[in-house]
Write a structure and sequence with these properties.
By secondary structure, this protein is mostly helical. The chain has one domain (about 1-120). The chain has five helices and no strands.
């Protein structure tokens, strides 16, 4: 679980970091640092929430299929996905998405427009 969380954190961090040029253009157009951070937070949390929801749907479906495929294991597989566990999973997914999206965005907001455009290409 920790390895998956780190992989997701790395992916969201790299995606946001690669958008430095886009953030520089937003600054040029008059967006404030807070508006840019808000947009990055909303985007990264929405992507993480969608990923978390898909994970829950896939886990529930796989659990049902395993129960149907091996009826003898029905007693052993009597557990399910309680709502608090699903909610906690979604909260963790959004937190990882926010951490991965906001960390490089804060650095990009504090970079000057010329430096951001020169560094990225």
């Amino acid at each position: 679980m920790i390895a998956i969380a780190l992989a997701v954190l790395n992916a969201t961090t790299m995606t946001t970091r690669e958008r430095g040029k886009e953030m520089a253009v937003m600054k040029t157009l008059g967006f404030t640092g807070g508006q840019i951070l808000g947009e990055m937070a909303l985007e990264s949390s929405c992507v993480a929430l969608i990923g978390g929801l898909l994970g829950i749907v896939v886990a529930a479906e796989l659990l049902d299929r395993v129960r149907g495929f091996v009826p003898a294991l029905g007693a052993l597989l009597s557990f399910g996905l309680p709502a608090p566990v699903m909610a906690a999973g979604l909260v963790v997914a959004v937190a990882i998405g926010l951490a991965g999206g906001l960390a490089p965005a804060v650095g990009a907001v504090h970079t000057t427009i010329v430096d951001a455009l020169n560094r990225i290409g």
